[in-house]
Write a structure and sequence with these properties.
2 domains, seven-stranded parallel β-sheet, single chain, globular, Rossmann fold, alpha/beta, three-stranded parallel β-sheet
Length: 411
């Protein structure tokens, strides 16, 4: 074993994922050492039975909601398209970002959601081996757009969900839209092993008050609005009669998070893991304030509005220049993007209330089946796609940019 592998092993044994007592840290290290010792024995066993049965282990990206849902859902849908009946998959997980999501996955593939077993088997997730099945990060895969959502609620889950609706004042004939806005309350939370990541990603934050026009529009159309997400900076400051602030309610739970999003007419969210609930259940989605500019939601029937990169006078750069800039700026867990933008003398501007309201109106027409593109729409779309081809790092969008926003762009 070379020095790099020894260093990796030591880092893995003593990795700090939570605040632990000395006893807990020692026990954790002992479990990981045991896992390493078990690895060759289990490998030999799996190899010996492989002519009869092929087994592969999957270790979920569990800490962050977006990757827990997005990566796993992509894999499961691709498996539905190209199934391999000769391979038997077994998923390991513990303390996931959402327990209900993992239970829904377990209806498709077997899941062992147990910390001790996860850690004892995790050597198969650390070291490269033929029995590990990696779940890739996919940004341009169309499988999600071609395969219907495979997830469903049981009879008891439907009863529980209906009772949550009833307690929230939502009747059977009502329809509602789910809103989520990432704000600065999320900056100091910890996800995974990088304590500072969420703060580094603060350039994705936005102001929930810019949803006010959309909420008012939905109320006039006979719809209800529900705000989800936790933690949040505080209650909404606009007319509370028009929006149910579930984020600060006593009903908040992993199950209710999933249920409310799965049953929404559509969702309006910022760029964060909550958007993956829409993708998971094929719920139409508007993703606003999308950054990095050039990214887009990987979900069916979705619209998106990117944030706007401006010069120091507040004048928007041409969209091609915005794409080019973000293709150069390193978007990584160790980069304070907001600081980089500021040091370059630029401003990153949020979508306005009017822009979001216009997108909400468009989505209402789309879900109701009465949206028709205005004259020149497809010409604008062709120009947009050409920009993405030349300057974007994420490929041609698989989602539609909001029509009004698209017509206001300078390429």
């Amino acid at each position: 074993m070379d020095l790099k592998k020894i260093a990796l092993l030591l880092k893995w044994w003593f990795i700090k994922t939570d605040k632990k007592t000395l006893f807990e840290s020692v026990m954790d290290a002992l479990i990981r050492i045991t896992s390493t010792l078990m690895f060759p024995l289990i490998w030999i066993l799996l190899f010996s039975v492989s002519p009869l049965i092929k087994i592969k282990f999957i270790f979920l990206y569990r800490e962050r909601l977006g990757h827990l849902i997005g990566n796993t859902d992509h894999f499961l849908r691709k498996l539905m398209v190209t199934p391999d009946k000769k391979i038997h998959y077994l998923i390991f997980c513990h303390n996931p970002a959402n327990e209900t999501v993992v239970k829904l996955f377990s209806k498709i593939l077997p899941v062992i959601n147990n910390e001790l077993i996860f850690k004892l088997m995790s050597s198969f997730g650390v070291f490269e081996n033929r029995f590990r099945q990696d779940i890739p990060f996919l940004f341009d895969d169309r499988t999600r757009f071609e395969v219907p959502s495979p997830y469903s609620f049981s009879k008891n889950e439907n009863i529980l969900g209906s009772s949550i609706h009833k307690m929230m004042g939502i009747k059977n004939q009502d329809w509602y839209v789910v809103f989520h806005c990432r704000d600065d309350a999320f900056d100091n939370t910890i996800s995974g092993t990088n304590d500072a990541y969420n703060k580094m990603a603060s350039y994705r934050n936005a102001n929930i008050n810019n949803y006010q026009g959309s909420v008012s529009l939905l109320e006039k159309q006979g719809g209800k609005s529900i705000r989800v997400g936790f933690p949040v900076h505080g209650p909404v400051s606009f007319e509370k009669n028009f929006i149910y602030d579930y984020s600060l309610s006593e009903f908040r739970s992993d199950f209710a998070d999933v249920w409310l999003c799965a049953k929404a007419r559509f969702m309006v969210v910022t760029a964060n893991g909550t958007a993956e609930f829409a993708a998971m259940f094929d719920v139409p989605l508007i993703m606003v304030n999308v950054v990095p500019i050039g990214a887009y939601p990987m979900a069916k029937n979705s619209l998106y509005l990117p944030k706007v990169l401006c010069n120091k006078l507040g004048e928007p750069l041409r969209f091609s220049e915005q794409l080019r800039y973000f293709s150069r700026v390193e978007i990584a867990a160790n980069t304070f993007v907001a600081d980089q933008i500021s040091s370059d003398g630029l401003l990153l501007i949020e979508n306005t209330d009017l822009q979001i309201t216009n997108a909400t109106q468009e989505m209402l027409r789309r879900v109701n089946g009465d949206w028709t593109p205005r004259k020149g729409y497809f010409d604008r779309l062709e120009q947009l796609n050409e920009c993405y081809k030349q300057f974007g790092g994420f490929g041609i969008p698989l989602a539609a940019m909001g029509e009004d926003f698209l017509f206001d762009l300078e390429f």
